[in-house]
Every structure is written in structure tokens, then in C-alpha cells.
Sequence to fold (273 residues):
Amino acid sequence: MSNPPPKSSRSLTLEARLPATPEELTRMLTEPAELAQWFAPFVDGSGRLGDALTFGWGPDVVWTTRVQVVERGKRVCWRDAPPEEQRGGPPGDMVLEWTLTAEPGGTRLRLVHSGFGDGTEWDDQFDATEKGWAFFFWHLGETLRHHRNEQRVMVWERRTSRLSREALGARLFGRDGLALDPERPQAGSTARLRLGVTRTSFEAQHVLFPTHLWGRFPELNGAVLLVEMEPGRTGPVQTGFWLSTWGLDAQRVAAVKAGLRSVANAVFGSPAS
Fold:
């Protein structure tokens, strides 16, 4: 009998100090309605110990995990559901352990995400997951600091291109797309950005060309935008535009959605009907 492969030592660790109690953060990590305020816009499941949680960012991006541990105010653990329950989620036995530590004025939240393989075939998934959690930690902080008790409404576009990442980034962030001004804003700086026919102020939080951009729109009540090229070394490049809004009326949300679609159409072409 052959020996089992060695267990991977590769994992991600992130920490943030957040303005919430440990009990509040426990709810944000287990209750579907609270998870939908900062993580996936669609969450299915009970959030109870042992039950599955399915996260959806549209019909083509779905991930199922299970709530394995809930020690209220102290620790929450998710472990990926068996492969037969997955619909495109990550392979392998992924474990996400959240530790909550009370501090004056808030809670320190620590995530250890383990289960990645050590081989190079895991590199894209590892890098994309690291950037994804960096964004969602920041998004959670934005939600707690500025949008408590406000209902999140999310709009998005997800498109495919056969251009190289560099060529696609030039279109995406250049005058044909978001028309960033300046073209390469620094993290922490303010730029101008186009959504359809409207140019608006954009406070850049993270900038990594050509693949990632996220930040907030002060003129849209602090709406948060993530633009990401998804991982993959071969084949077409998938790009997502994910925009969280709070406190905007239906007409304003519709205008933002139309503006986002206009940018996507300008970069990728109109989607096939």
C-alpha cells in the first residue's frame, strides 16, 4: 500500500480589527442574512452547526461549505462540503477557521484558510483566494463602519475575453473602459472613474494592474466596487465587476447598473442574446 501524500503546509492568514462585538461578528459569519450584507449576495442555508452554507455570486460562481464549529464570540469554522455537494467550488478539503478576540472598542478577527496544495497547479487559486479575502475583510469593515442596518444591493457584470491580461487591462482601465484618471492611481488616493456616461469620484483602496482594483464611491453613498480578473493560466480571461450599494433608491441603482453594463459592453462587446 502506498503512503498517503504529505499534508499541505500552505495556508492563508489574515487579521483585522473591526468595530463590532465578538457576538456581532459571530452572527456575521453564520447567519445567511448577515453574510449577504458583506460576502456573497446570495446565501442559502441555515447557518446552524453542521449545516451547509451555499454562497452565490450569480449562477456561475457558487461555493458550498459547512459550519463545522460555532463557539459564539470566540471561534467559527467552515469546512468545505463533499465534492458531490459542490457546484464549481474549490477542490480539496478546505478549512476556514475564524478566531474572534475582544479588544477595547471592537474585535480582532483572524482567519486561517488552509487546505491548498503545495504544487504549482494551486498557485492561481491560492493567489486569487488571498486577494479575495483581502477585499472581503475590507468590505466587512466598510459595512460595519458605514452601513450598519442598511440593506446591501449588489449589481455586477461578468465577462470573458481572449485578450492577454495586459491588453485587457489596458482596455478595461483605459479610455475605452473605466477611463481612470489618473491612469494608475495609488492606493489611498482619489481618482475619477467612468460608469456609462457619468464620471464620478473614486477612492482607490487597492490597485494591482492589470488584474485588480477596489475602492469606494463617495458620491454614491459609499458604494464599493471590485474589479478582478479571475485566475487561470490558459484559455479566456474571466473578469468580474462587483458593485455593492447601500441607501440608493431603485432609480439610482438602475442607473448604476446600466453604467456598469455600458463599461462592460465597451470593453468586451455586447453579450450574446
In short: The helical segments are 22-30, 32-35, 123-146, 165-173, 250-268. The mean pLDDT is 90. The two ends are 54 Å apart (CA to CA). The longest helix spans residues 123-146.
